[in-house]
Specification:
The protein has 536 residues and is of the alpha+beta class. It has helices spanning 6-22, 30-39, 58-61, 72-94, 116-127, 162-185, 212-220, 286-298, 335-347, 364-393, 395-418, 424-453, 458-490, 494-528; strands at 55-56, 63-70, 103-105, 108-112, 132-134, 141-144, 146-150, 155-160, 193-197, 201-207, 225-229, 238-241, 251-254, 259-260, 264-271, 278-284, 304-308, 312-314, 326-329, 354-362, 421-422. The strands form seven sheets. The chain has a four-stranded antiparallel sheet with strand order 9-10-2-20. A four-stranded antiparallel sheet has the order 3-4-8-7. α6 (162-185) packs across α9, α10 packs antiparallel against α11 and α13 packs antiparallel against α14 (494-528).
């Protein structure tokens, strides 16, 4: 075990150098890291450029914490409204006589068809509206989205099933998380934590963001964009909407939507070349550009209503046909409002309204206190470990201390390379790694002592001690790695951060405590040729 080939020695030293090289950015400021990134030649792979440091979590650098809840009542209303519209289209296509109107009650749509023959013709068409839900376990068709109930007096009830409602909520949560992630990433923040919590809630944590009001404004906006025309005098199919400015009177807007936000492919903040006012430029896809061009060609001179979340944010007059598929949104905007509006439009609309149920801001002072407490705990733990190892094993304890320092450096290098977020539980994982790393050295050294006691020579004691301790070290660390893996896959937030730090610490511990320590001892033994081992 003490005979290490030159190839293995070079490989070990290269691994040590690379791990420590990755940790270098943690010693640089953000400006210095950016300068290094810009100065690096383009032919060097990105992972070889030391420009990424460990990211501090919300509890260490402060930031904003917001808990959002999906408005399930609105989801139910929207789904019921879609069912009603589909039923209305079927009635219109089949010219089926209807007694009264179509009523919506919670998640049930009711209609009355008194004519039995017409009802029999209509029922198969209504059943076609029900789609089978996919069985998540086996990928097979599951229950239907609708239950259809028929009564003798001609009343028909179409009810959204519980399974369908749960599926709609899950889909809305997944879409909302993706939209929120795009919005927050556009703010330029680092490593936001966005995750589902419970049945209908989303947790958003943004480290380093000290402007909770701006975050709430971005998260709370549904961002449902529509292009309509202001109503002409005498129009009946209209809806009254408020203007963006609170003091302005509401205006009548045509109910018909020309183009929706789903046809928007880009939106960017800009400045008007003539007035130098902040504006948002937008661009449609081919379908949206065609519809927008046709509508503006037929309505030159009319005011176009740009509607965001049921409020008119701008009402420019169409001076000429807009056929290029692009345009601009102008108004009395500030630069930040234009930036935020562009972010909202680019990110897409939320599938449902999100209500803020909890919010808090962690100040940088509290984060600094957490860093100080965690750092002091790590320093005290490290000092006590070093004192114990040197007192117990003398020079061998010094080598274990060197391996421990390299272990910590490599751990920070791996965390930096992965862009991991370090939280207080992560610091706890680092402190635990300290103890585990020394434990591996203790296993090796005590095994060597036992071999010396039974009369083996120094070289035999070292060789046998390392070889027999390896199995024990691997068993202990693999079982801990399994536990860390379970924590990662079943845990959330800080728990996963602890699991990541602990897992990486296990990898670096096995490498440094066995491989590096063995290389140092083998090198020392070849140079010094001791007759006895210098263990206390």
């Amino acid at each position: 075990m003490l005979r290490i080939s030159a190839t293995k020695t070079v490989a070990i030293l290269l691994a040590l150098f690379f791990g420590m090289y990755l940790a270098v950015p943690n010693l640089l400021s953000s400006e210095q890291r950016e300068a290094v990134s810009q100065a690096a030649p383009g032919w060097i792979p990105g992972f070889l450029v030391p420009d990424q440091a460990v990211v501090l979590g919300l509890d260490l650098q402060g930031g904003s914490h917001v808990l959002l809840q999906v408005d399930t009542a609105e989801l139910v209303r929207n789904e019921a409204t879609q069912i009603r519209d589909q039923v209305r289209n079927l009635l219109r296509e089949t010219r089926t006589p209807l007694e009264g109107g179509i009523r919506i009650s919670n998640r049930t749509v009711e209609l009355r068809i008194p004519d039995e023959a017409a009802r029999e013709r209509m029922l198969p068409r209504l059943r076609d509206l029900s789609e089978p839900l996919a069985d998540a376990a086996f990928g097979q068709p599951g229950s239907s989205t609708l239950t259809i109930e028929e009564q003798d007096d001609g009343l028909i009830r179409l009810t959204l099933t519980e399974a369908a409602l749960a599926e709609r909520i899950n889909r809305a949560l997944a879409q909302s998380i993706e939209v929120l992630r795009r919005r927050i990433d556009a703010l330029g923040t680092t490593e936001p934590n966005i995750q589902r919590q419970g049945a209908d809630r989303i947790l958003v944590q943004v480290p380093g963001l000290q402007d909770p009001e701006r975050l709430k404004a971005l998260l709370g906006e549904t961002a449902q964009l529509e292009f309509r025309f202001l109503a002409n005098p005498g129009d009946t199919d209209t809806v009254r909407m408020p203007l963006r400015e609170a003091g302005d009177e509401p205006v009548d807007v045509e109910r018909r939507v020309i183009v929706g936000g789903e046809d928007l492919i880009d939106a960017q903040p800009s400045f008007d070349q003539q007035s130098n006012q902040p504006i948002v430029t937008f661009r449609f896809n081919v379908s949206g550009a065609q519809r927008f061009g046709e509508a503006t060609t037929r309505n030159v001179g009319r005011q176009l209503a740009i509607v965001l979340d049921e409020a008119v944010i701008s009402a420019p007059r169409v001076q000429s046909p807009i056929t290029g598929g692009s345009g601009q949104i102008s108004g009395d905007f500030t630069v930040q409002e234009v930036n935020d509006l562009a972010v909202l439009l680019r990110s897409g609309a939320l599938p449902a309204t999100l209500t803020i149920v909890e919010e808090r801001t962690v100040g940088p002072g509290l984060g600094a206190d957490s860093i100080y407490a965690g750092t002091m705990a790590a320093i005290v733990g490290a000092v006590l470990v070093v004192v114990f190892m040197i007192a117990a094993y003398g020079f061998f304890g010094v080598m274990a201390t060197v391996a421990l320092a390299v272990n910590m450096t490599m751990l920070f290098g791996l965390l930096s390379a992965l862009g991991a977020t370090l939280t207080l539980p992560g610091i706890a994982g680092i402190v635990l790694t300290l103890g585990m790393a020394v434990d591996s050295n203790v296993l090796i050294y005590e095994r060597v002592r036992e071999e010396e006691r039974i009369g083996r020579s120094a070289v035999q004691a070292l060789d046998t001690g390392f070889s027999r301790a390896l199995g024990t070290i691997l068993d202990a660390n693999i079982t801990t790695l399994i536990a860390a893996g379970i924590l990662f896959f079943l845990g959330t937030g800080p728990v996963r951060g602890f699991a990541v730090t602990l897992s990486l610490g296990i990898v670096t511990t096995v490498f440094t405590a066995f491989t590096l320590t063995r290389l140092m001892i083998a090198t020392w033994f070849r140079v010094m040729r001791p007759k006895q081992l210098a263990m206390n």
